[in-house]
């Protein structure tokens, strides 16, 4: 048995969206399937103190060796996907029904003179059409109760049907128009069969014709001023929408298709494929693969198109070969083109068309034995479903990275490889990285992130406003790197020589107009990094090295990481250091650099938003940042400040009569202009 702590996902890595999760054992067998409105909230319950778990749940988490999940767009999606996977995997820890025959299904007895719809659980019988399975019988009854408003087919047993036929009057459902009452001849057999065919077609996923028909009939009744009929049709339409809630797992036109999506970074790519049959998700697969070197020099969209083309050709060629091998080895299978047609669908939806998509469609058509079309959906249900597939690809790649990043063995290997590659005396247990963010030289900021033992230490993160390198409206990334390096290690030198007194420390952060310190411990920042990373190539590294020489910093290793080709640059070296693409060390450097970039972007957006908020007050003499903030806070917005009188402006603390007149005159003159 595995300890749940050994496969517990790291804190904060589980998404908060609805989804379906699967626990697997050591042999990768699915032992439990569940759904959740919030995956994070639900899965966290399994990793609490095991003594508080139900005995069966406790046995399940100790039997499991891993947990995985699929993100969906709604709770209804999660419910239907849970049904599908419970039936597919038959997990040993999911609740079994007492008769242990099957899960409840919605059945339609097509072998009767007047077919009926009913809840059924048991072995399948000839002449009966089944829909499901469902986890709960009440879900079927609720669905059936809503649908018979639109499709008033028979739902009663044979005994009830015969009794009301002898009585010559319908049951209650017949009186309230939830049954066409074939028992008393209100409809003929053919008319009732037409109702049944509509019901079956709807349950097969062809919902669009029904909703369009009801919408048109409702509009027509309203135009004819038959408001009672229009209201009834409106209620029917609401019932249909409630049954088949607009979602991406169920497509109303009964589509047979595959939806494929990639998510790429500089080193790896995640691919997800959803198999849709009769408008419903019948399967899902995903892989994380190394990004091929052939796409390194391509733009993101071109790289995506190339990888999609290669994947489609390889995946469906392998599928066709497996189909042919199964057909050859199975004596029970006759010549059956439909099996191959089912394996490779006619429609394949992707994010972007491969460069040679016409030729690729021809090859896939020959493999399928029928036409194949590649589509890029632009709107509607299919676009929403493809977005869900892409979200799962993104999540798969993120989880793959976090798994590597959170693995103690992998982190240790990465740090040791860095030590060896950089020829350091010891492994860099503390690493700092800085990055610059701006838009055309405005609101230039820098971030400083800290990793210890290969993990982020957010309490030591720093954010800087760059001034010296961005005074003329044109950014100079090299000068900005030099400035932030100088300020960081000036602080390091001063912290080593003296610890701040109480009046220099406000209990939350160091008081500095240009630097926001997140550490609450004034001694922490005195601990130097073994490795300092700058985002950029040789010019940025050399600029940082000049600051090291100026400040006498000789005990810190300095490198630069150029994003385009992931090259490691050392000060003064003409050629970069190239690490293997699947190197744990390169992966760790990439993680640190991406975190620095994220932190810098976040701070830049905050500064830009603040500047835009106060932009109309920037040209008023005598207004500093604090007074601007006080004015906007007092009035709620610059727009309200413009409509204020001089006396009202004077009510703001720190605003005297003369300054209030200046503010009033300046804002009014701009408004008139």
TrEMBL record:
UniProt-annotated location(s): Cytoplasm
The protein's name: UvrABC system protein C
Known function: The UvrABC repair system catalyzes the recognition and processing of DNA lesions. UvrC both incises the 5' and 3' sides of the lesion. The N-terminal half is responsible for the 3' incision and the C-terminal half is responsible for the 5' incision.
DNA repair listed as a keyword: yes
Keyword DNA damage in record: yes
Assembly, per entry: Interacts with UvrB in an incision complex.
Membrane-crossing segments per the record: none
Single GO MF descriptor: excinuclease ABC activity
Entry's family note: Belongs to the UvrC family.
Domain UVR: 208-243
GO biological process: one example: nucleotide-excision repair
Limits of the GIY-YIG domain: 16-95
Subcellular location, principal: cytoplasm
UvrC family homology region profile domain span: 259-548
GO cellular component terms listed in the entry, alphabetical order: cytoplasm; excinuclease repair complex
InterPro entries: GIY-YIG_endonuc (IPR000305), GIY-YIG_endonuc_sf (IPR035901), GIY-YIG_UvrC_Cho (IPR047296), Hlx-hairpin-Hlx_DNA-bd_motif (IPR003583), RuvA_2-like (IPR010994), UVR_dom (IPR001943), UVR_dom_sf (IPR036876), UvrABC_protein_C (IPR050066)
Signal peptide stretch: none
UniProt keyword terms in alphabetical order: Cytoplasm, DNA damage, DNA excision, DNA repair, Excision nuclease, SOS response
Domain of life from the UniProt record: Bacteria
Pfam hit, one: UvrC_RNaseH_dom
